[in-house]
Amino acid sequence: MKLDETASSDPWHFARPSLAAAYLDAFDLKLSSARGLFARRRMGKTEFLQQDLLPAATERGYLIAYTNLWESRAAPDSAVVSALSEALAPHGMQAVLSALGRPVRKVKAGAKILGSVEGTFEAELGTEQSSLALREVLKQIDRQKKPLLLVIDEAQVLAHARNGDFAHALRAGLDIRKDRIKVIFAGSSETTLRTMFARASEPFYNWAALEPFPLLGVEFVDYTVRLMNSMARNRLKLEQGIHAFSELHSTPEFFKRFVERYMLYQVQGVDAALSHTKATVFSDDHFHKQWSARNPADQAVLILIARSDYGVHSGSGLSRLSEMLGRPASKSTVSHALRRLEKDNAVTRLGLGDYRIEDEAFADWIRRKAAAER
Ligand SMILES: Nc1ncnc2c1ncn2[C@@H]1O[C@H](COP(=O)(O)OP(=O)(O)OP(=O)(O)O)[C@@H](O)[C@H]1O
Ligand SMILES: [Mg+2]
């Protein structure tokens, strides 16, 4: 990916320079060399990392490497290695490949690099070799004058047991380079990220401070509404924008769809645009699929969490579950369901017995469905 091309081309991007500066300042002050950020889906993590943080880091003289592990979840190791190699491109990467005995002719210039190297690694490197490739690319980075910022988006993929060897190798490699390589881990699953950084048996234990990613709010709405008003005939009031944003669960992606709808169908007015957007983004179809893929115990537990009438582990919670399932539900019914739901990122554990459905819109849908069926 060519980050510098995307940085300035999107007029709708609400820039967050001070947030980017704050992260980089903390690295400069050597307070930490790694941070973990989490926020729910579609809240703007990736956009911030790519369009604000990485360009700001480049300006401060960092080499930058970015990878989104969800897109490469089959081979996160080669994704990390190729992101690091790309930061060195083209010379550093050629050196890495030749050290590994790879034919250098496979490396093509420009944007093709990522794809081709990733393909090469994926096809030809086993786990051992990817750790070797990692060591090699880190050695190349040691030879650079500039420090490096590595951003690992959807980092929770590294928490999978099958990626354990590589994760250990990565941690070891980065640990001894704390002053030259700074790392940001981001992800949408708080639960999994917590496991990664808080469990003593995990490779990244105690390595990065994990904190919520600051969400977009009124300033973002204000920016977007002003920009839209500069183009639209029927202007939108800031309060109308704020109302729509909140109705859309403060989700920037949905708000932008609302703005687009409003611009295209201005004569229909703001209410029509909002209800159209809600109908599409909180679409029944999509939730229906998620719902029917779940077994009855999972569904019943989801209802309990969505309605939050009773604690999932409480006595009244269990009897409510038994009622819904038409058979006696036990504590292990609940814990098995919770384990599955957490594994799929459907549900997050906030505290003892305190759970939340990751997708607030899905929770809403469940509440409506449960109310209609009573
Ligand atoms: N700073 C911003 N300015 C304008 N729009 C934004 C901004 N951040 C996010 N958005 C809008 O929200 C959408 C979702 O953002 P993004 O993909 O960054 O979320 P995310 O938190 O990475 O989600 P996921 O967990 O699903 O990967 C973007 O495609 C964009 O439309
Ligand atoms: Mg993202």
Automatic annotation (TrEMBL):
<protein>
    <recommendedName>
        <fullName>ATP-binding protein</fullName>
    </recommendedName>
</protein>
<dbReference type="InterPro" id="IPR027417">
    <property type="entry name" value="P-loop_NTPase"/>
</dbReference>
<dbReference type="InterPro" id="IPR036390">
    <property type="entry name" value="WH_DNA-bd_sf"/>
</dbReference>
